[in-house]
Design goal:
Helix content: 55-70%
Radius of gyration: 43 Å
Distance between the termini: 123 Å
Strand content: 5-15%
Oligomer: single chain
Number of strands: 6
Shape: elongated
Structural class: mainly alpha
Strand order of the largest sheet: 1-6-3-5-2-4
């Protein structure tokens, strides 16, 4: 067993490392410190000491993997020549920061009150895992990453220049969620945590290499700087900006003849689709001529009118039956009145006309009330929706007359029943 493996199996202390002239480093691109987490670590370490050793690797291996490291305390970048004097924390960055803060806070305290906890370390045991992968997996396991942490991890591991990744990292460091940062850079939410995790392992997705929308995204974001960051983090807002200001919503093309309208529209749609950059792949420009649209509207209007005609017919039938029932009840309740009129010499025609007139007046009033209510409702809807109203006098007249005819037709049976009553039987009724 070599010396390195022997060290891997035993827990080291900072004092041991210091005696060998070895200092602590961290990844320059690792996520920023969360002060709340640091304070929680400080409280735990002060009360219980350090319970789990921190995992470390030699700085030379980290640099060989293409990652940039800095001195933990000074923040200075460490060169390959100086790497032999450093080890890099794979995890426990917050714990080590808390340890340093405790030491700093205890400088002026009495000896019995000082924090005297030791910081323990252990070399990574499995050296077969790639260093970049080791950093990402240990961080994810020990303290689950947020979406914005993944771009930083990918940038640490990527050796090639990726302007899109740099832009996304810039946004996530400012607090933008990963899907939103993806949209600002590509106008699509296609850059996912999975793509970033693959990048940590050296598998670079083609999506990270594409920069088609990068310049446009930078330009639009620059133009929207006067808005708050909270607003700019909204993916819905980005879609709105794209549709309203960056992508034409529609285009009117004038053809030289009616025969060429369809072909011209389709050609224009093909040109626009070739430059389409909106996030939804299902959204495509379509070529439609106005004549075809007019025909479609006419067909829909005709179908709607037929449906309304059937509904109106059923409503009139139900209303007519209601009028007939009311008149039958009226005839029944006025039986003695009808018998008396007949005894005094009233003819069938007179009684028939009386009840038909009552039915007609009843439906006439109903028609007038319905027309007035319809006109009022039309003006209310117009005021709310800003749709103009056109009232047809002919339609009003036809509606009132038709409602009156319904009363006459359905009032005929009760009227005939009243006219044909036997006066003797009518006078006997109680």
């Amino acid at each position: 067993m070599n010396k390195k493996n022997e060290l891997a199996l035993q827990v080291l202390t900072l004092a041991v490392l210091a005696s060998k002239g070895i200092k602590i480093a961290r990844l320059s691109g690792n996520r920023n410190f969360d002060e709340k987490v640091v304070k929680a670590k400080m409280k735990s370490m002060k009360a219980n000491g350090m319970l789990v050793p921190a995992i470390i690797v030699d700085a030379k291996k980290v640099i060989e993997a293409g990652l940039e490291i800095v001195d933990f305390e000074t923040g200075e970048i460490i060169s390959a020549a100086d790497a032999a004097r450093y080890v890099v924390l794979v995890d426990a960055n917050h714990r080590y920061k808390g340890h340093l803060n405790l030491l700093e806070a205890n400088k002026d305290l009495k000896d019995e009150e000082k924090y005297k906890g030791e910081f323990y370390l252990i070399y990574a045991l499995n050296e077969e895992i790639a260093v970049s992968r080791m950093f990402s997996e240990i961080n994810i396991c020990t303290n689950p990453w947020k979406g914005g942490d993944f771009p930083k991890g990918a940038k640490m591991a990527c050796k090639e220049e990726l302007p899109l990744l740099d832009f996304i990292v810039e946004l996530t460091e400012e607090g933008y969620p990963l899907p939103t940062a993806s949209k600002w850079g590509t106008f699509k939410a296609g850059i996912t945590k999975e793509i970033m995790a693959d990048a940590m392992a050296g598998k670079i997705s083609d999506k990270l290499r594409k920069t088609n929308g990068l310049e446009r995204g930078r330009r639009l974001l620059k133009a929207a700087e006067h808005l708050s960051k909270e607003i700019l983090k909204s993916r819905t807002l980005i879609d709105w900006i794209i549709y309203q200001y960056d992508e034409p919503q529609n285009l009117v093309v004038r053809a030289t003849s009616t025969d060429e309208m369809t072909a011209a529209g389709e050609k224009a749609a093909d040109i626009l689709n070739s430059y389409l950059t909106v996030s939804d792949e299902t959204i495509k420009y379509k070529g439609e001529d106005l004549l075809e649209q007019a025909n479609q509207i006419q067909e829909i209007s005709s179908s709607t009118n037929q449906q309304l005609l059937w509904i109106a017919s059923i409503s009139l039938l139900v209303g007519g039956i209601g009028v007939m029932n009311i008149m039958l009840v009226s005839v029944t309740e006025r039986t003695r009145e009808i018998g008396l009129k007949k005894a005094l010499g009233a003819r069938k025609r007179r009684i028939l006309t009386q009840f038909l007139t009552e039915a007609a007046v009843l439906t006439l009033l109903g028609g007038l009330i319905g027309v007035a209510g319809g006109i009022a409702l039309a003006y209310i809807i117009s005021a709310v929706s800003a749709v103009p109203v056109a009232i047809s006098g002919v339609s009003i007249l036809v509606g009132v007359v038709f409602s009156t005819l319904i009363g006459i037709i359905f009032g005929l049976l009760p009227s005939v029943k009243a006219a044909n009553m036997n006066p003797i039987d009518a006078l006997r009724s109680e």
